[in-house]
Amino acid sequence: MNRRALRAGADRFRTGARLALASPDRLLLDFQLLFVLVYGTTCMVAAPREDSDFFITSPSSLAMTFLMLVMVQSGTFAVAQAVLAARADGTLLRLRLLPGGLQAYVVEKCLHVLAVSAVSIGALLGLAFTVGGLSAGGPAALPGALGSLVLGLLFFVALGLLLGAVLPAGGDLLSYSALAVYVPAALAGTGAAAFFPEPLRAAVRVLPFEWIANGVDAGLTGGTPLGFGGADTWNPLVAAAVTAVWTALLLAAAVPLLRRMTRRASGSAPDRTRT
């Protein structure tokens, strides 16, 4: 990723942000405020409390589940939809012809998701600490929560780019694929993996979902995260490493897959042109 692509991606992000802010209809969708409203309503109805072990009334479980849903919607589903739309209207084909064009597109999507998620996640966590019963830990653990959020969002963006690049336009495959991401993300938010049999728990933790949710939870509350207990040992460095490795692998694959997708969409023969 060169400096030209980073600057071009930042320029595309600023242009898109101005257009989004000028359209009230897009604000509700881009900032995922519907999830925040549903979470706030659920908190007022269920009245979460710290001594509860039930999902719907446990402050950590409820907050982390909705937080993971916001991250999936903003980072994976919305980005995959944007990639499919950009393929259909020829935007990606035009970017492929520019030096670093597809790399700039990846940078733009990462910046866009980080920006809009800062608003939606900030609003959600504000509700979590006011009406959701979540208790804040000390400031020492907050960098861990922020790091988990940023790495988690970049992972979901990379996953969205990947899905948009490999899925065919039209049909229901995107909906089914998004469901396959929503389910493990929501389960990670509930901390259900702590009750899985050991082999299944180990298999689940190869993926980054559990590490993202637990990293945010541990950083915000300053305690043992909801998905770890008993003989399990929580290690924030392992959480960061697992998420970072997955994110780096998916981002590294995003540009070549986007390039191949636009080449196939244009009907051209494979070539060695680099963008």
Automatic annotation (TrEMBL):
UniProt keyword annotation of Transmembrane present: yes
Superkingdom to which the source organism belongs: Bacteria
Keywords per UniProt: Membrane, Transmembrane, Transmembrane helix
InterPro entries membership: Nod_factor_ABC_transporter
Keyword Transmembrane applies: yes
Name of this chain's protein: ABC transporter permease
Residues passing through the membrane, by range: 27-47, 62-86, 111-134, 140-166, 173-196, 237-258
Organism of origin: Nocardiopsis changdeensis
